[in-house]
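Incident log, structure service

09:12 report received: a user says their structure output differs between two submissions of the same chain.
09:20 pulled the input from the user's history:
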Amino acid sequence: MLIMTLFVGVILTSCGGGANENSDANSDNKSYEMIFDVPSLIDKNVDEIVQVLGKPENDDEPTELQIKSGIVEWEKSFQKGGYELLVTYNATTRKVIDFFIPTNSSTGMTENIDELLQVSNVKNNAVLKVEQVKTLKNPKEFTGVRISK
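09:34 re-ran on a clean worker, output below:
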């Protein structure tokens, strides 16, 4: 399940600090189009996000049995403009926990965090917490960014 994969990936990786950390070193000075306006989604619940972004790629919900067995977090994935937005939320309250934007590189890794910050519209947002999810093999490369309030 993608939730467990992401969870294990986040646990096994080291996350960086704020949105501006290493952005100059990792920037190629190229401008990228905003694909997902994450700041406008930050205070919405998952159902409101679906209304804004449309039907997710994975539109399933946890079963009652899964919830009773302890599943708390669930996720929905949205695709747009060659990028993915993974929204993790509390399956019972529907409150969003965080957003994850992985690189769209075929390798699954990038050194260009600036691209992901522009794509998610958080490049110059000092209010949101942005964690760079580093790869295990090379601390200069990232799999994506995790965004939360």
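09:41 both user submissions now match this output. Likely a transient worker issue. Closing.
09:42 reviewer note: Residues 16 and 132 are 5 Å apart (CA to CA). The two ends are 25 Å apart (CA to CA).
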